[in-house]
Recover the amino acids of this structure.
């Protein structure tokens, strides 16, 4: 499974990419919203771990643009310090499927990634998404 990590904190992005690579994932890193959007177009990743507060284009803008394109977007996971209920609603409106608070709980992320099917959508027995720590952001 391919994962695109987009975070302007280079140390954080590269550390997460290394851990995911060690877990068997094919990982690429981008450091701003524009670069992330370009990498998503080129790679067509299964999952995109996307910070919200990015230079060039915000994570919200990247998610919206991916949603406007004709293709099925990757599974979008916000990993951000923006964690208020308002922030979570904005992430949902922008097209994010999941919302994880920074620092990201690696066990929670690994559990979430284990549920992803090859087309990028997690299976859900209850008709909702498999979101760690609460109700689903989006029901499929």
């Amino acid at each position: 499974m391919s994962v695109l990590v987009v975070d302007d904190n280079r140390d954080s992005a590269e550390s997460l990419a290394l851990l995911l690579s060690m877990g068997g994932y094919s990982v690429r890193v981008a450091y701003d919203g524009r670069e992330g959007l370009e990498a998503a177009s080129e790679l067509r990743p299964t999952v995109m771990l996307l910070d919200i507060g990015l230079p060039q284009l915000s994570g919200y803008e990247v998610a919206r643009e991916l949603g406007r394109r004709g293709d099925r977007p990757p599974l979008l996971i916000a990993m951000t310090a923006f964690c208020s209920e308002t922030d979570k609603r904005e992430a949902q409106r922008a097209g994010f499927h999941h919302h994880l608070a920074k620092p990201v709980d690696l066990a929670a992320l690994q559990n979430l990634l284990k549920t992803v099917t090859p087309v990028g959508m997690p299976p859900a027995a209850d008709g909702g998404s498999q979101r760690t720590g609460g109700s689903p952001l989006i029901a499929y």
